[in-house]
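Bit of a strange request maybe. I'm writing a small parser for structure token strings and I need a real example to test against, not something I typed by hand. Could someone generate the tokens for this chain?
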Amino acid sequence: MKKRTALAALVATALLAASLAGCDLLSPFSYTDNLGEWDFPGVTFNSASIGTVHLSVMGVETDAKLDISWNSGLSFYMGDGTVSGRKFTGTYCSNSDLITKYNFTVTFSSSGGKLKAVFAGAGPLDGLNLENGAKTP
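Reply from user aminoacidic:
Good idea to test on real output. This should exercise your parser:
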């Protein structure tokens, strides 16, 4: 009986610690609840400061769209795909090359009204991690 109590206390402590650290282990994520325009300040990518990144989250789970831009729109990417749970899966291209398509996934999470988006896959957006996204009016 003491082992079960100790295990329950350990699990409760771990969940509380994760919650206090801003993790969203138990919070549900809804793609449609996060539709809109998001700004991610102070982004560093590929060892360079790229400033604020803007992310547009559009569509529905079966026809989702993402636009990603920085440098006043000089770096602009458009993605199309689908969403299952927290994960967007699809292809994207840049505004300077509409023919070349790259496969990618974006894993979303949110905590305290802030959005996080982690990009993985092929092409120039691979490894982009956006944190502390604030919804813009």
